[in-house]
Design brief:
alpha+beta; Translation Initiation Factor IF3; 4-stranded mixed β-sheet
Length: 88
């Protein structure tokens, strides 16, 4: 996992609001958004689907990027993803 506090403060992340979307849309839209980012860029993903805590980390494992859950409340999950070099 990355250390968000050390890296996050230096770069403004792209925000992706996926609240209200159900599986598999959060993972699919996250994958599409990542394709448009350069290595080292951050993507902040906001979800409400409880399955996203499984789907998005699995997606990131496939792409080789880094992910951290920065907020997890009853109706809100926020992921911070760092695009890796050469990731899909």
């Amino acid at each position: 996992m990355m250390v968000a506090s050390a890296i996050y403060g230096r770069m403004t992340p792209t925000k992706l609001d996926l609240t209200g979307l159900k599986c598999p849309l959060p993972a699919l839209k996250t994958r599409k958004a990542l394709k448009g980012l350069k290595a080292g860029a951050f993507l902040e993903v906001h979800c409400t689907d409880p399955l996203s805590v499984i789907d998005i980390p699995n997606l990131i494992q496939e792409t080789g990027d880094k992910v951290e859950i920065t907020e997890r409340a009853e109706h809100r999950i926020v992921f911070l993803i760092e695009k890796a070099d050469g990731a899909a």
